[in-house]
Amino acid sequence: MIRTIKSGTHCALLLSRCTSKSSRSTGARHQHSSYDVAIVGGGIVGLATARELILRHPTLSFTVLEKEKELAVHQSGHNSGVIHSGIYYTPGSLKARLCVKGATMAYDYLEKKGLPYKRCGKLIVAVEREEIPRLKALYERGLKNNVRDLSIVDTKGIREREPYCRGLMALDSPYTGIVDWRLVSLTYGKDFQEAGGTVVTEFEANDISMVTESPAGSTDGMNFPIAIRSSKGDEVHCRYVLTCGGLYSDRLSQISGCSPEPRIVPFRGDYLVLKPEKHYLVKGNIYPVPDPRFPFLGVHFTPRMDGSVWLGPNAVLAFKREGYQVFDFNVRDFGDALSFRGLHRLVMKNIVYGVGEMYRGIFINAQVKILQRYIPELSLSDVLRGPAGVRAQALDRDGNLVDDFVFDGGVGDVGSRVLHVRNAPSPAATSSLAIAEMIADEVESRFSL
Ligand SMILES: Cc1cc2nc3c(=O)[nH]c(=O)nc-3n(C[C@H](O)[C@H](O)[C@H](O)COP(=O)(O)OP(=O)(O)OC[C@H]3O[C@@H](n4cnc5c(N)ncnc54)[C@H](O)[C@@H]3O)c2cc1C
């Protein structure tokens, strides 16, 4: 039986507060389950966009539908916590522009809200001579991207900034910072609710279709022609749907008839943590010079807002989307990844790198060896295994990492009322406020809001 959401059903409705613990509705305070726009996915992208939309359109009704009990518990709650400055990305690309703009917007927002952050800076360190030309090219790239306050420093400059770090030359980015992105996500959610938006948790959207008849007892008639059904049989009606499903964005897109590609392939990143008595070794972010042959940035040293220091992450294929333990396994997720030709191609192109990452994930002394190139004083006994995050990596069928945004709709009447954000490329936390503006523009133009 399909039910329309009201309090007392499976879903939890967060009416007035958005905290790290979801507060459930208690009485029959929920007036209706029909909204102008429903946003599926309560991660940082969905919440930032919901906030932007309701601030632009205060007379419309909005809801965020999130499958978990709490908001922002996946990528937005499992990341390095860095406010990136936008050095790495191809000049002129959307990713570069959104990151640079997003970082400035993030700092302004954090100041305005009084949220804690630290502008502790970042050094990208060349430890081999052959890395120096790449470091200099990165500097030029950063300048082209209008990254603030960049400079090249020598061995002495490195020691002044990071007394325990060794290197021949480094790119210094004092504008880079750290923050708790989950807290930021929850604050976006709070803004959204204070502006009148509704957050529903424990609502896993698994069907989107046209309403064929007005629901019994509804006074809305057919004004809200889209029905979103949850896996537990609850139902929300709306005029338009936006999905920001992170690791499930491809599956959500398929619900309204979109192509299965680009496919999301989950990559788990395991962190090591520095023992508290060794925190003095690291002051700000220390990153390697990225190797252009490999798809990820490489393991780095990152201080956290709680005073801890994380080292990593590596990047290994995860056997389960949203699986944070090494042995987490899901037959469908694993089968999907394994049968995807895009992954075969990616693996073929990066086989040595991939095996190395797996090896270093199992044998942490190998990981420590790499880290010692930057901080020679670090030893195996200084580190412990830490938490993990899983990245939603969009891949095309030729094995290329999809680096830019992918918007999709679907087919038929439903497709004309749905917008899927299939890929919001990392660092989507840093870029979230800029991304939200861009998605809101897209929503407005597609749906004539
Ligand atoms: C290891 C790691 C390190 C990173 N480090 C940084 C960093 O330092 N700085 C930075 O800026 N970025 C970083 N990123 C990237 C950043 O965290 C992500 O780009 C960003 O959090 C993505 O947000 P999102 O909202 O798209 O996805 P998510 O946070 O994953 O949110 C998607 C939400 O959709 C929900 N959902 C999915 N399917 C359904 C459904 N059917 N119904 C209802 N809800 C659904 C999920 O439960 C989830 O809450 C990192 C990422 C990883 C994995």
Automatic annotation (TrEMBL):
GO MF annotations in UniProt: (S)-2-hydroxyglutarate dehydrogenase activity
InterPro entries (alphabetical): FAD-dep_OxRdtase, FAD/NAD-bd_sf
Recorded catalytic activity of this chain's protein: (S)-2-hydroxyglutarate + A = 2-oxoglutarate + AH2
FAD dependent oxidoreductase domain ranges (all copies): 36-441
This protein's UniProt keywords: FAD, Flavoprotein, Oxidoreductase
Gene3D superfamilies xrefs: D-Amino Acid Oxidase, subunit A, domain 2 (3.30.9.10), FAD/NAD(P)-binding domain (3.50.50.60)
Keyword Cell membrane: no
Cofactor(s), by name: FAD
EC number(s) given by UniProt: 1.1.99.2
Family: Belongs to the L2HGDH family.
Alphabetical list of PANTHER family matching this protein: L-2-HYDROXYGLUTARATE DEHYDROGENASE, MITOCHONDRIAL
This protein's name: L-2-hydroxyglutarate dehydrogenase, mitochondrial
Source organism (scientific name): Albula goreensis
